[in-house]
Amino acid sequence: xxxxxxHVVPHPNGWAVKAENAERPSSVVSTQQEAxxxxxxxTRNQGTELFIHGENGRIRxxxxxxxxxxxxxx
Length: 74
Fold this sequence. Notes:
Elements: E1 6-11, E2 14-19, E3 27-29, H1 32-46, E4 49-53, E5 59-64
Parallel strand pairs: 1-4
Antiparallel strand pairs: 1-2, 2-3, 4-5
């Protein structure tokens, strides 16, 4: 399985979790909260980013689970 960012998007049957540039969703669930939980699990395991879209399809939130650099001493 390749490491790709995950998107939670509206779907005719509820909400879908879709890998970036994928043709088909990996999961379709009835609520956005279920889709977010599933997508967070995937992004935490893969160290990728999560993009949460609203009902209008626009990104409303994002969450990074990547390997962020350590903050520099200040």
